[in-house]
Fold:
Amino acid sequence: MKYFFIRSYSKINLFLDVINKDSKKKLHNIQSLVFMLNLHDEIKIKRIYTSKDIIKFSGAFSKYIKKGDNSVLKSFSLLRSEGYIDDSHNYHVEIKKKIPVFSGLGGGSSNSASIIKHFLKTKRIPRRKLEYFSQKLGSDLKLFFQSSQLYQKDLTNFKNLKKKHAFYFVIIFPFLKCSTKEIYSKVDSYSKSKKTINYNLYSKKKIIRILKKKKNSLEEIVIKKFPIIEKILSELKKINNCEFSRLTGSGSACFGLFLTKKSAELGLKKIKKKFPKYWCVISKTI
Structure:
């Protein structure tokens, strides 16, 4: 039986406003502009004739994965309970982790979405089914069933961008464990819900001007827990041609946005000198 090869892409939040908390779902409603990046995990799946699945993690960040409790195991369990995988069918799965764990880049949710798409044999699934999967696997799962560039209006509503914009990012991961649940539990104030912006109407330069006025509502919480984040963001912003710097998601990865590959490459060299012990990489929108 041959392997199926899947690229499981990361995401980045260009801004993030926490606008309220859904009393029924007990989740925070956010507004965000989310782009997928070419930074990706590599997944291999094939059918095997054994009594159970074999799931292996490798790569730079594999040691941070809980072998008995992770998004891949949960995805297989859910797919079986919903009848998408026959109980008698088992699989050999290898995941090469290139996306940092606990970084806010969505690696776990992306892995789940990629596996679900593989077994459902579609990139789109009914909204009710997607909501159910997201309840079980995390609200970020829904992002990976949208376009590669999208505006998130709230927990359930998304607006895909018709025109794809090329942005480059210098990403720094300081190896700090940011628990999404912990960071959101410390939110004690909310941003005012903004009027929906139709990003499809704007050029790249106009979008950048809008984004410079935005922020990540979770940044102050993360900085309070890990003060080094403030220094990282400051050093990124100082780099020539860096449009702005920000935390992605609930962290701890930080990024600087650049309009050209050359300026991002120069930025990467400078930031590596400042933070030689941290993981640094350039990534591009897809």
User: Anything to note?
Assistant: The chain has eight helices and ten strands. The longest helix spans residues 107-120. The CA atoms of residues 108 and 215 lie 24 Å apart. The helical segments are 71-81, 107-120, 127-137, 180-185, 204-212, 219-225, 228-238, 261-274.
